[in-house]
């Protein structure tokens, strides 16, 4: 039965716990305010931080059930790659690096909640952003009667001062660099890092170079291009320079290549699901390479209408993921459509990486639909009959001519 | 009345005439085969060739009515800019440089045909490409009973040897460099140049540097970035670095900037309307800058759903133009939708151009919907109530929870 | 500045007031709870109730500013007809009769609020339905800082007993038939009536005949068909049986014709914007006739691609209106697209009305694109060249054949 | 290798043969003109004609390989039912009865061609219609190098007189009723019958009653309604009135029920793929019942966004089938999306059939998402929290309010 959620009536909660100051405060606050047992869940999604400190901190707070897990392979294989089959870009530009990580965290939190018999889950996302939506839609879709605690929407620790005071009162260690406020907020995983807030709030100003963490600047990248080859099998990348790699390994290597060549920076003002515009600085080095690579292999293996159908639905697919509806009927349906198109997307793409540029320099496939005999400017020995074009044009023009005849010239509706 | 076109029954034909070998052969062939008067029409769309030689050649062939016109401003103002309001990209990548020029040529040919009392028009596009479709759909939409002559689909000059023999027999001057075949075919206008065919036919091989005409390579571009500012008014660019410019002037300057910074190259395998894949090398220096600039000013001035609606229809709009349906009810209807969205797309974008990269470094607008008070990480003084997010999420999750309750967890359809 | 709305801090509120028990309780409750001045607004949208009793009741409650207005012509002309240009059906079936009335009421409330210097508006819609959303999105779009009071979401009169007790305590007259609860809830206007709730909640059971108010049953309709003619001008109906009528007059007559012939009943389980399914019984007699009539005149006057483009966007347009976003950029954009298509939708449609059926028996237009010479099975004298079909088919098949050649037969992706 | 089809160079051809005058003339003409062996293929798709006479006629013409097959079950199971999962309607009204039969005939012709070693196929569709496209796209998709003969586009038997003369010269029996021309042309199968041409060409005139073959008129239907129940399993109908039936049996029974109750007539002006408008009279008695039944069971079992996604793609899916692209990547992709949505579309629908009306009078499902506890007007015991609606509305309104604040009130873009 839905509803009837009396907030305070919680026995055991699974918290998505990073080990940082904010989620440590949340951990303690949950213990005090809800008087409930807290289970921590810390995942390695490739954010580039050690997880063991989080375990030790959790122990320090008396947490008995501590989950620390490396989810990088699952993340890339079951979330990132399926999404890349669609060439998904939110608002024409954003590779959805944060959006695609949230459903996996939500999924694992619910699985753990079932394992440990918890009746609630909690996350550290604020009340203004998209992440709260993504976490909670995931929770509810996977366990409809789960109780959800979103401390940032509930508590009165609404200023940095209050938060630090709470930390002090509750023996939460605050590292020196956290005493002052961070100049901007960061989220990172194996696909990307995102930076936003505070000094980045004015969209009229370019971000300072210190903001960037996953890429060097194009200016600082080598003067010599790097050439690589990526092999695809049924829509997913499987090898780099001829070496077969696991999904996470492959993305890790592409990230390094992207990093070194200044690839994958994006400075974007985007529209949040909760109704406001926000500005983010994204770095998606490997993902940016992957997008060009995937489009390139599709360009010779996908049928025209298969591609156009995919492309026409891509904005909706991207919006669904951005808004947090990964676990929804509409995403499953679109995924079925997209996956159906990928059976023949197999082959090799060669790319040149150079100071921010990803340039396709070759594509080959056993399934290539590109047929030199048909397209050639040379004599095609009858593979294509140019006379057919006349009939093709005449019938395509017929409706326009019928309109023109009664005064609707120039395609006037 | 449609139809009844007996091909040979032509009195006067308006030929789209470049002055080059191929259209000169066509000119002569029309005079001989159709025994009709030929009117030539040579337009400056910014292809970068002198037009006077075309006039002199036409005179040499005895042409009495010769039209040589500079259409650059019309081209940019009435065709390129409306298209850029849509951020149109065919198959996710191609800026439609050739596609957008054809309707204007067709339109002007029909206008001239009416002026001079011609009953036919002719073009020099081959029977395998998209351009024949674009020209002819334009002709038919603008004058449904016009007769259309497409020599490449009709004649028997099917090899280079035969073509040159015809030229020789008919006193058509052949410059030395035309004796041998060109290693690839080029189309150019103020928006772009495209190269395809022959040595470019293998998509596994990167194009040689000699192919590029409108851009230097990123490698050869300066080591220092160039920063520029573009002002938009209701969706169209109107000034560069604070200087108001006419549409063609503005695009010309952007082309120079793009050229110098190695911007706007594209190596693409695309799907033609006539059913085959083809490979093209495109250079769209100014247009590539413009696309980023326009998306950037839209990012702060367009409402979210206005943007998403536009974006979801863009692939269809691009396909319509690519396929040659500029003069069609569906294009007019989509244009009305797009133009309606652009009233507030006014403001300034600053961009950094660097070795192939176009990077937005600032956007400002009197119509900006980006509201720091709402989005801020700092205290927003009540501009946004975080508690609202809970109800928002709960109702968005309701259908997923109802599904989950009866076993359709995880958004199973 | 948005936000900062402290609910109780209201000086003057404009209430959408029907004069019935519920909104009378609301009126009194607002006076008591908010201690503010209440302005009433009662509109005739064709719901078929007298308005003067509402005025008298408002006077009785001490209301000083009372607005009673006949908005039927505006309703049909500026809301119903533009929507019908799109052939809008929500979820394939619902003609949006309730949805389209809410924006007009919201608009007029806001206009009145500006006139009388009110700082708030209030409505009587419940917290579970779509109407609260439609009213409030309209209010906020038209006046972003307006205060909105939705008593049903705020008060504690959560049962019929409490409501009646409040009425008694506050000298609100309760007619005898209102003492017991109504067996279902009704909303009506010139376009339709809707009935839902209580005895209608089980979708496995058909509604009783007493539910229907705007139509007799097909069984009770005459055994003889009625034939009518509707004239359209640029997409809108302008005359019935040759007599030019105002929009509201025309719809009123069509309602009578529909009523008498058992036309326009719909028993639907639909999906609400707030996330649940609900079941409604709708009667849209005139609108159902109009839909068939409009589609019929479009069938001969609209270009194919214009129609297909409209049709492909119709579900989105209908959803926008259903969800309450009439006053939104996306609706304005789609309306521009739709209206652009309607310039030539002019002509006469003849219909047969018979026991629930609306059957087109003829359509004629000066703008007809139907051309007997082209379509005829007889000799067309060259209007259409059948040989063109071969080239048309060959090029449409080309991509499928290229796929088949490499083993992707049968259109395998 | 494509192309190189020298028309006359045919050894053995599989003809889609009805046994009627026209295809008999074609049979003979192929033998004479092409001097090739003709294999006949006659299929029962439920058109309601005996097939044995076709066999005897073929024998009479010396045909050695004669295929006469009952394909009704395949037709309904693998073509009609998958299409009905989409609620497909072309141009909002047409149930695609002819369109969906063509791919099956094409498929079987190609299978037979492979079996008997034929190098060509032939059909009797004219050069103006859609059917030639549907047949030939099917042929080419299934066997890219097949030779296709379309006699109506090739021969000179362009008038009835010439055709009859040819018949006489070639000992083709002409029944008396075929001497004069049929007043209109008919196509029929288990899903529908279609009538068009000649006396039906004027869209201003209603068809005469004699045109109708599969339905009595609503006027002549019984005065008493018939009530039926249809059971669905994963999107397809499986039982009628509790009796499990095979696909073809079920459709046959629904056709009888539809026939008797005057259900499923449609008088339509539609847009052909070949560019012209045409007028058809369709009768789809069982299909019309099925559409309402399927939509009704979906109304309680499909998630909202699943339904809206399907609905938004339905026009494109219908267009694909209408245009003849059943065997195409895009149809396969859309089918995957649609089929994914149907897993839970299981349950029973009760319908009332009455004089042309199909009225849903009840729907039930073990997978119903309709939840009385949530939707009820009565106290829902906390299943739905009305306060959530406020946050939901506030955040949905936020972008409109931000726009309104800077003068873009009323949703002005």
From TrEMBL, chains A, B, C, D:
GO annotation terms (biological process): argininosuccinate metabolic process; L-arginine biosynthetic process; urea cycle
Binding site for L-citrulline: 94, 99, 130, 134, 185, 194, 270, 282
Annotated binding of L-aspartate, by residue: 126, 130-131
Pathway: Amino-acid biosynthesis; L-arginine biosynthesis; L-arginine from L-ornithine and carbamoyl phosphate: step 2/3
SUPFAM superfamilies for the chain: Adenine nucleotide alpha hydrolases-like, Argininosuccinate synthetase, C-terminal domain
EC code: 6.3.4.5
Domain of life where this protein originates: Bacteria
Enzyme class: ligase
Keywords carried by this UniProt record: Amino-acid biosynthesis, Arginine biosynthesis, ATP-binding, Cytoplasm, Ligase, Nucleotide-binding
Subcellular location: Cytoplasm
Main location group: cytoplasm
Catalytic activity: L-citrulline + L-aspartate + ATP = 2-(N(omega)-L-arginino)succinate + AMP + diphosphate + H(+)
GO molecular function, one term: ATP binding
Record: residues binding ATP: 16-24, 43, 124
Residue span(s) of domain Arginosuccinate synthase C-terminal: 184-401
Gene Ontology annotations for the cellular component aspect, listed alphabetically: cytoplasm
Family the entry assigns: Belongs to the argininosuccinate synthase family. Type 1 subfamily.
Quaternary structure note: Homotetramer.
Name of the protein described by the UniProt record: Argininosuccinate synthase
Record lineage: Bacteria, Pseudomonadati, Pseudomonadota, Alphaproteobacteria, Acetobacterales
Annotated gene: argG
């Amino acid at each position: 039965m839905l509803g009837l959620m009396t907030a305070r009536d919680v026995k055991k909660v699974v918290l998505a716990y990073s080990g940082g100051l904010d989620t440590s405060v949340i951990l303690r606050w949950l213990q005090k305010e809800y008087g409930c047992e807290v289970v921590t869940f810390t995942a390695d999604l490739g954010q580039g931080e050690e997880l063991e400190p989080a375990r030790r901190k959790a122990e320090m707070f008396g947490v008995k059930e501590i989950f620390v897990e490396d989810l990088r392979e699952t993340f890339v294989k079951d979330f990132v790659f399926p999404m890349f089959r669609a060439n998904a870009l939110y608002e024409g530009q954003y590779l959805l690096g944060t959006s695609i990580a949230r459903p996996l965290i939500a999924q694992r939190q619910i699985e753990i909640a079932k394992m440990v018999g918890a009746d609630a889950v909690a996350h550290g996302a604020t009340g203004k952003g998209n992440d709260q939506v993504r976490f909670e839609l995931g929770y509810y879709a996977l366990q409809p009667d789960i109780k959800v605690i979103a401390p940032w929407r509930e508590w009165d620790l609404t200023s940095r001062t209050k938060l630090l005071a709470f930390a002090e009162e509750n023996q939460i260690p605050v590292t020196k660099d956290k005493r002052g406020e961070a100049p901007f907020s960061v989220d990172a995983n194996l696909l990307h890092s995102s930076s936003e807030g505070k000094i980045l709030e004015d969209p009229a100003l370019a971000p300072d170079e210190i903001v960037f963490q996953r890429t060097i600047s194009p200016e600082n990248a080598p003067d010599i291009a790097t050439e690589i080859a990526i092999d695809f099998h049924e829509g997913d990348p499987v090898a780099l320079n001829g070496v077969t790699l696991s999904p996470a390994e492959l993305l890790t290597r592409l990230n390094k290549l992207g990093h070194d060549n200044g690839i994958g920076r994006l400075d974007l003002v985007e529209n949040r699901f909760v109704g406001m515009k926000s500005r983010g600085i994204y770095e998606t080095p490997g993902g940016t390479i992957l997008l060009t690579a995937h489009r390139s292999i599709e360009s010779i293996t996908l049928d025209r209408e298969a591609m156009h159908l995919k492309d026409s639905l891509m904005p909706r697919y991207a919006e669904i993921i951005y808004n947090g509806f990964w676990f929804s009927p509409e995403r499953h349906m679109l995924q079925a459509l997209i996956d159906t198109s990928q059976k023949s997307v197999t082959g090799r793409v060669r790319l040149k990486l150079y100071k921010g540029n990803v340039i396709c320099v070759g594509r080959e496939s056993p399934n290539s639909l590109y047929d030199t005999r048909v397209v050639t400017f040379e004599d095609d020995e009858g593979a294509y009959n140019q006379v057919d074009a006349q009939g093709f044009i005449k019938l395509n023009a017929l409706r326009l001519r019928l309109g023109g005849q009664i005064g609707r010239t120039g395609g006037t509706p």
